[in-house]
Amino acid sequence: MTASSSFRRLIDSLPEHAVQQAIANAYKEVDRADRELLTLAAETPGGSSDISDSQRGKNYNLNRYSDVVPYNHNRVRLHGSHDYINASHIALPPQLSANKYIATQGPLPHSVGDFWRMVWEQEARAVVMLTNPVEALRSKCAEYWPLQVGESKKWGELVVALQDERPMLGCLSVVVRKISLSTGGVERLVTQFHYTEWPDHGVPKSPLPLLRIIDELRSSISPLPDSPVVVHCSAGVGRTGTFIIIDAARGYFEKNRDYQGDFVADAFRSMRSQRTLMVQTLAQYMMCYQVASYILNNTS
């Protein structure tokens, strides 16, 4: 498909093997170049692909995975002298979406306080969690919230309290938690959407739970695009990047019936320039097209 081609026509031709192969080839080319860039960045600091901050001193131990780190130019910077967290500001091209995101790893036991500090300082109202704390007997994310309703914990200067926890109505695979953050007499409410059935490096059986999260997120929790949504899985790239594309597509195609070019590919390339390995597998990339097809065919 050329830049002037209709995305709707691409979606309609998605069942064709040749189209699927062309999409796969395009993905693999961007993925190969991205991995080469990360290797080069580790060897040669400087430029937009500089990752040197993530390797400096104690910062290195704040990375869950050594090969998934933020670029210096758009990493989230915490207030104060110890400003490092493995998190990246993500903004898609304005013609795709005005929404702002923070893509981050699942907190480590010793970085939970930094995670909540980031949520507070960035004034985020929503957290989308796309992993389970343990998957395949491996730790994927620290449990960074109090586990009992009414319980509170203090991390640094922030008091974190679990006010409510419930399964999403009609969608038992999503747990919705209302969490209050307070410090210095000021309190804010954050909503966490925890999707529990998305396998690591894989894709969920149905897109409907993700679309239910997006509908509730955008209708009542974080309707203003300037308020960043914190999105994380384990590494903060594969499931995280896939969710961001689907959220952007949902918003765009609610208002528009077509897009000149390839919406998914444009969003994917933009995200890969902002955080390495976003949309980590070909299966996740193809899922973006399939969900875009569902949105286009089920939006009045």
The CATH superfamily name is: Protein tyrosine phosphatase superfamily
Task: Tell me the span between the first and last alpha carbons.
Answer: 26 Å
Quote the CATH topology: Protein-Tyrosine Phosphatase, Chain A
Order of helices and strands: HHEEEHEEEEEEEHEHHH
Average residue-wise pLDDT:
94
CATH architecture: Alpha-Beta Complex
Number of strands: 11
Q: How many separate domains make up the residues?
A: 1
Low-confidence stretches: none
Shape: globular
Strand content: 15-25%
CATH class equals Alpha Beta
What's the Cα radius of gyration?
19 Å
Helix/strand structural class: alpha/beta
- Portion in helices: 25-40%
The largest sheet, given as strand count, sense and whether it forms a barrel, is: 9 strands, mixed
Main sheet strand line-up: 1-2-3-11-4-10-9-8-7
What layout of secondary structure does this protein have?
Elements: H1 7-12, H2 17-43, E1 75-77, E2 84-91, E3 100-104, H3 112-121, E4 126-129, E5 134-135, E6 138-139, E7 152-155, E8 158-168, E9 171-183, E10 186-195, H4 208-221, E11 229-232, H5 238-255, H6 263-272, H7 282-298
Parallel strand pairs: 3-11, 4-10, 4-11
Antiparallel strand pairs: 1-2, 2-3, 5-6, 7-8, 8-9, 9-10
